[in-house]
Amino acid sequence: MDKNMACVEEHPHTRAVVQAINQHQQPSDYMLNHEIYTEKELHDVKITHKKFESWHDRLAYAAVRALRLVFDVFTGYMHVPTPSERNSTKAIQHTHTTMTEQQWLRRFIFLESVAGVPGMVGGMSRHMKSLRTMRRDYGWIHTLLSEAENERMHLLTFLELRQPGWLFRGFVLLGQGAFFNAFFLTYLISPRVCHRFVGFLEEEAVITYTRCIEDVDAGRLPAWSNLPAPQIAKTYWRLPENSMMRDVLLAVRADEANHREVNHTLADVGPNAPNPFVVQTKRQTDRSTAERH
């Protein structure tokens, strides 16, 4: 066993992970690429909504609203309408009961346990298509798998604050099973609709985290006002050592806003186009290389 372990440790791709495990630390360089935000980027996130351009968009949005209703009922989600909502004639006024820290965590954990599904399903589907058609994928797989891992890290972060019971885990199992299969079948038929669906879903996620941050700022969540950020969050988002729970919420919201833009863009370009984010990154790299020379 020791001999086999020594061979593993000599492998350059596993040496850092093995070392971190031996030191009981979170390995930091095995993760897929993800965004690290500046202070300005964290606070510049806005609630947006993409206008409908086709019946596909309306179908995707209707599915998101139906799914959100299920989430709201299951997690007991209620919120204080924002000033813009109160002034809007189209606003739906909600009866309000203040959400506690535990209620927010229940919502976040359930939401993130499902939010990690689309990226994995999309990446897996495109991987299998690339294998059977014997063609390149042009950069989509990595982006989608990175998104799935990012959502999983959200879940692991919130699990540092609460461990759900067996009943909650049972509902997660049922919800994940139903959503995985439905999303997979839909992705085989229309990847464009699926990415638009995820784009709209991330719009709702940005709204949810924005309202939670507003609750923290308004003093409605006193237990989180001075709660230090979990270590896993500091490592993953490279947050300062004195970061608080509010900083974690800002980082998670920024991730959701990023997923919102990525999936709406992937829906716009269509499944047969190269990943525009990979192309953009390559151009920036080539430009930087040319400037150095």
Automatic annotation (TrEMBL):
UniProt-recorded Gene Ontology molecular function terms: alternative oxidase activity; metal ion binding
Protein name per its UniProtKB record: Alternative oxidase
Record carries keyword Glycosyltransferase: no
Organism: Rotaria socialis
Biased composition (Basic and acidic residues): 283-293
Residue ranges of the TM segments: 166-189
A GO BP entry: alternative respiration
Major localization listed first in the record, in broad terms: mitochondrion
InterPro entries referenced in this protein's UniProt entry, alphabetically: AOX, AOX_sf
Ligand binding (Fe cation 2): 151, 202, 256, 259
Stretch list, region Disordered: 266-293
Textual note on the cofactor: Binds 2 iron ions per subunit.
Domain of life of the organism encoding this protein: Eukaryota
Binding site residues for Fe cation 1: 112, 151, 154, 256
Keyword Amino-acid biosynthesis: no
